[in-house]
Each structure stands twice: as structure tokens, then as C-alpha cells.
Amino acid sequence: MLPKVFTQLDLFMDLNLAQLASLAPLFTFCTCGENDVIFEQGDPAEYLYIVLEGCVAICFYPDDGEPIVVAHIGKDDVFGWSAAFGSGTYTSGAICLEKTKLLCVRGEDLKKFYEKHSETGILILDRLARVVARRLKRTHTHDQVVAMLEHGLKNGIKPLGG
Q: Residue 6 falls within a domain, yes or no?
């Protein structure tokens, strides 16, 4: 049976039951506590995350200064894009600000899904790009983000030095 959450998230809005049923097995649920570190900047970028409940801080750690909180991620928002971009490592860290429920998907599984179900994969890429562009607050970035996601899913990007 398809979990109800898949019919309620913006990312999956208007997908038919067959599309949702093919996507659902890729995702897992997890719960993190307050102050739990989900990933550190520089960690291997394995998962893309969707917040179901709670709040996550995205922190950038510059080489020459204090950490910078670049975003607060709440319900129905997405983070860990590096896994979808195929960029190898996370460019920022993620820490829970409170008890948080997440839906997680491996970037590699998204890539395989895209290759097998390109029509649905394109819809998901488009929606991910909208989330990213909305957060960047520049609507003209949407097409660029779609192109980056598609390139990452098709080709992957090797980490520096790797």
C-alpha cells in the first residue's frame, strides 16, 4: 500500500498512482533528534532529503571563519541536492534544529529511476528544480537547475581528486 505522504507532498503532486507506486520503494523514512547532524560539509553526497516535520539548518563552513547558516529547511522542502546533482560531496552541512521526520532517497537510486522511467523522472527533476530555484529566490535559475540535475543524473560528477 502506498504511504499517504506520497500523495501530499508538492514534489509528487499530480503524479498518477502508477508513477507514485514506482517511486515509493526508492524512499525511506527516518527520524532525527534535536541537534542531530544529518551530514557534514564534505561528506559523500549519498541522499536527497525531504522534510516531513521539523526544521533543519543548512550550514556552510568557510575555511577562514565561523559557520554560516544559509537556510532553514521546513516541511515539504528538499535538501541534500548534491546527491541529485551527482557532485560527490555535500557543499554544506545539515543539522536538525528540533525533532525532524525525513523522507530520504539515494541519489544513485534516483539516477537509475530516471534512466528507467524518464517521463516521470523529468517531472521529478522539474519539481526539484522549482524547489531549488525558489530557495535561491531567482526564478530565472529554474532551467539552469533542471539542466544541472539532468546532467548529474545522466553522467554523474566525480569528486575533486577522484
A: no
